[in-house]
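User: I'm putting together notes for a lab meeting next week and I want to include a structural view of one of the chains we've been expressing. I don't have a solved structure, so I'd like a prediction I can at least talk through. The sequence is below, exactly as it appears in our construct file.
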Amino acid sequence: MKATTKRRLAWITGSLLVAWFGFLGFVDWAMHQPPEKFGHVMAHMPMPAYFLFPFETMWNQARHGHLNPGDPAPDFTVSALETKTPVRLASLWTSQPVVLVFGSYT
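Assistant: Thanks for the context. Below is the predicted structure for the 106-residue chain, given as structure tokens.
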């Protein structure tokens, strides 16, 4: 193999690695943004990218949180499903315990 061919192959490989790490950095940045911004970024993500990047691992690291089992839940406000009125978590546990269940039932 000629020296110029090796040099060209090294340059192409290096360029692809820089592009790959740059894109990883961009996706990592997007995963640390609010859900609306992250959703906007992911809506424009080409399908082959999902096979080239460790999305699940990155997502778990970006959204791991800081609660341990037994820690009190942080207070937050959500809209009620039926009435769309805001409900504060702290207002629910004044009279009775509260169990939060997150998941998909589809």
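A couple of points you could mention at the meeting. The longest strand covers residues 77-79. Residues 3-67 form one domain.

User: Perfect, that's what I needed.
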